[in-house]
Amino acid sequence: MKSKTVAAWLAFLGGPLGLHRFYLHGFGDTVGWLLPLPTALGVYGIRRAQALGMDDGWSWALIPVLGLTVAGCALVAIVYGLATPEKWNARHNPGAAPDAPAGRTRWATVFAIVSALLIGTGVLMATIAFSFQHYFEYQIEEARKISQ
User: Fold this and answer.
1) How far apart are the C-alpha atoms of 13 and 27, rounded to whole Å?
2) C-alpha closest to that of 64 among 130, 148, 125
3) 27 phi and psi, to 5 degrees?
């Protein structure tokens, strides 16, 4: 039986590593194995920014990849948490009754949804702000080079 609450928490906390995909679909899931790639690229971008400063072009291109991955996994946690028990059990517990306990929404599920909404929205907004700020700073620098 695949629990909706466990899947929502795994998507929120371990989503960038693909833990929720492995829980629901097993270790043969291709998407689960691909999710750590953008996470690692984003972490590499943060390490580059720490070592080379925020003017490094690769770092400001790679950091949003991590932010979008975290925000996307938070969205998946919200979708998992808001699924009806009938839909959840039909999809992830096909042999179980439509109202089986694994698909029910509990307080822990609600806390996973609220946490994912709070953190995911914050990360998404920070990613958008970071991306636009560095994009427009880059455009200003290029305009200065052209005008001189």
Assistant:
1) 18
2) 130
3) -75, -5
